[in-house]
Amino acid sequence: MKWFLACLALFAFTVSAADVSGNWKGTAETQNGTIERTFLFKVDGNKLTGETNSERMGKSVIENGKVDGDNISFTITVKFQDNEMKLNYSGKVTGNDLKLHVEGAGGMTIEYVAKRVS
């Protein structure tokens, strides 16, 4: 009976985790215009890895990524005007939609809306 309950609990946890694996394309509106960023997410249990790319800031590796139910979080390092900056992402997955909140140095925030592309 204990084995059955343990398997049932594991199944419930697996079902409740967001399916974020794959390619996503996000856009954010800023005072300087629209920013586009692509995300390639890989999930292993509750660990989130992958990379992201934007025309303005180039490619970055996803670090410290986590999946907790429908919520994800991760950090990337970008180079902006020869300075490195950490950006902290947090978001919520709803089917093929992803809303991401980004925080950077000096209180900078950006809101992305992303769609799964594959």
Q: Could you characterize the architecture of this molecule?
A:
With 118 residues, this protein is mainly beta. The protein has a single domain (18-116), classed as Lipocalin, CATH 2.40.128. Helix content is 13%, strand content 64%. It has one helix at 2-16; strands spanning 22-30, 33-44, 47-54, 58-61, 63-68, 71-80, 83-94, 97-103, 109-116. The protein has an eight-stranded antiparallel barrel. A hairpin with a 3-residue loop joins β3 (47-54) and β4 (58-61). The chain is globular and about 35 Å long.
User: What is the helical fraction, as a range of percent?
Assistant: 10-25%
Q: Estimate what percentage of residues fall within beta strands.
A: over 45%
Q: Total strand count, please?
A: 9
CATH-defined superfamily: T3SS negative regulator GrlR
Would you state the CATH class? Answer: Mainly Beta
Based on CA atoms alone, the radius of gyration comes out at 16 Å
Low-confidence stretches: 3-15
Output the helix-strand order: HEEEEEEEEE
Overall body shape:
globular
Count of separate structural domains: 1
Here the CATH topology equals Lipocalin
Biggest beta-sheet profile: 8 strands, antiparallel, barrel
Order of strands across the main sheet: 1-2-3-5-6-7-8-9
Secondary-structure-derived class: mainly beta
Q: What is the CATH architecture descriptor? A: Beta Barrel
Average pLDDT over all residues = 87
Number of helices: 1
Distance between the termini: 40 Å
